[in-house]
Amino acid sequence: MGSEPVHAGFERWAVFAKIRAADRMHHRAVGRALEKLLIAGFGRPPRILDVGCGDARDIAAILKRCTVAEYTGIDNSSVALECACGRLAGGAFPRRLIHGDYAEALATLAPAFDLIWLGLFLHHLSSEQKRELFRRTMGLLAEDGSLFVHDPVLLETEDREGFLGRIGREALGWPELTAEERDMLGRHWSQHGRQERISRLEEMAILAGFSEAQVQWRDPLELYALLAFGRRSRPSEILKTV
Ligand SMILES: C[S@@+](CC[C@H](N)C(=O)[O-])C[C@H]1O[C@@H](n2cnc3c(N)ncnc32)[C@H](O)[C@@H]1O
Known about the structure:
This protein is α/β, with parallel strands linked by helices. The protein has one domain: Vaccinia Virus protein VP39 (Rossmann fold, 3-Layer(aba) Sandwich), CATH 3.40.50.150. It contains nine helices and eight strands. The chain has helices at 13-21, 27-40, 57-65, 78-88, 102-107, 127-140, 160-171, 179-192, 198-207; strands at residues 47-51, 70-75, 95-99, 113-119, 141-154, 196-197, 214-218, 224-230. Strands 1, 2, 3, 4, 5, 6, 7 and 8 form an eight-stranded mixed beta sheet that branches. Strand 2 (70-75), helix 4 and strand 3 (95-99) form a beta-alpha-beta unit. Helix 6 packs across helix 9 (198-207). Bound molecules: S-adenosylmethionine (SAM).
């Protein structure tokens, strides 16, 4: 994995919590898509890997309503993982929370996961790290498993500056933030975000052996997407059900 550090955590978790509570990053819609997928079933209770799981707020509630074989979450924030542990408690499935850098943690895991989830994580990585993460996740997936990516994405016609302008203008209408918090968020997006076009992510995924991206969901402003990738050699039937 590239030596460059990943700064995916917000400087102030509280700001992330505020915009998430207002559903600015569309966790609800994406969560509904995930739940539909889990209910449709994988032919067996799925093993789930969640990279950069944070406090598992949304996924914990969904998993408790579904039948799953196992949940593994990875995050380098001990505070977030403590919250995740509390949220997952009471779930009728084995769970494992790994505290540490995602690259090191992935190297310790054994295949095969049915569903690998990257929630607002991928855009924090450099291109090299993204390519490597696609390769690593391919190696950890079951034959008919799928990788899901919920992330901010550029329009095919725009560059990163255009995207940052668009999302920055949108954030001006978010009353839950103070002006200072909005500035902090803008800095965070521009310093730590490496958002890509869907076509670029698809190229990286295909190089790692995945199929073309299946766009499972977009928000009306097309700032975010939920993308699914199955193995090229064995397209996943389950993706058609979402
Ligand atoms: C934007 S949050 C997303 C949390 C959650 N997946 C969601 O969708 O709401 C990104 C998460 O990645 C974690 N993270 C950042 N860098 C990491 C790294 N190098 N290894 C593991 N986790 C990391 C952060 O602690 C944070 O919880």
